[in-house]
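Problem: given the chain below (430 residues), write out its structure.
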Amino acid sequence: MSEPVIRVENIGKRYSIGSQLGQPKSISDTVQGYLQSPTRLLQHFRIGPPTELLWAIKDVSFDVYEGEVVGIIGRNGAGKSTLLKVLARITEPTEGQATIRGKVSSLLEVGIGFHPDLTGRENIYLYGVILGMTKVEIDRKFDEIVAFGGVEKFIDTPMKHYSSGMYVRLAFAVAAHVEPDVLLIDEVLAVGDAAFQNKCLGRIDAISKEGRTVLFVSHNIPALLSLCSRAILLSGGTVTADGKTREVLDTYLEGIKEKSELPLFARKDRRGDQRLKFVGFEMRDWQGVEVGSLVSGQDVTLALKYESSDGEPLNNVHVELELYGKFHESLCQLSTNFHQVDFQEIPAAGAIELKIPRLPLQAGRYMFDLYATVSGGMSDYIQDAGALNVEPGDFFGSGRLPPVGHGIFLVQHSWSVASAEDCSQVAYDV
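Solution.
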């Protein structure tokens, strides 16, 4: 077997947590801060007890060979982006080493390498040079890059006036035309619209067929199945699976399922200050009776049980629930602030009820995340907090439903026919 294009050997990246409460704006601010807080000065010179340490990735090792398209998957906080930043030489590893042979092009964060005051045209040349292209190469590919990014009308407009989607389109267009030996891509493609995402995926496929190597971080499971022959699963900063994409994805989804079956009060993998803590949830039918599964087309209630950490009432409470489909694709977000009903004050313990009229979901199992803030600060965030089991129901009142697999949502609709005489015809001057 040939030498690997990418070799990662026992890579680890460690961060200090809570060592600085804010960033000073000048040298005088820094000196004044040290005078006011000797502890901060001691921390700067690493004197005294260490601050809390977090290993974003730890003991990560793998090889990638020429022409492979490898998907990097895992939940938020698993270390995926940190790994790509180490490989792109954006950050140095705390331990271990990574070796990459050939020219590397990376697309990790929206707008890295762009200057907001420069036009799109000027930034293509700036970013292209940063990625290792010569002016002659950029001249030759300029029109193709602009067309791929779809920003022809705005190419001479300063990029501070671009939307985030325009940033991503132009950044990917430049990165994908560098003709790199290795292309590193993070989840930033999720910012683009569906048509552009499909164009990007087609470009990634073309790059791999040219014998180049791609490392692709994504939550888009259909895209991973389509593009990647291999996947690496990160969990808690370590590699927990490495193999054929379908097998690794099955491991990933099974782990999510197992985690969601734990009672909420027992979940340790949560973030926030826990001023409000989710401790359980109930599914209730249209009569308010607790049930083990919901029925399509019925009014349902989800009761999210909570407790406050200090036994006191909670103020300015905001709650969100995000729902996921079969491949863990985001389906919808349900939020208190969509209806301007963030709660000004709620009791120290109780249940926040989410009512959904005529549940518009096909039969199946749907995972959800829970998120809450109290007085603007993140209080509790649990990924894969639980699942909704949905059974088929008479949504349309006809005794019929679309076959399973033909869509996820059920939409109330009607049909009618109009005669030719009833159809008005309008002529437009061109």
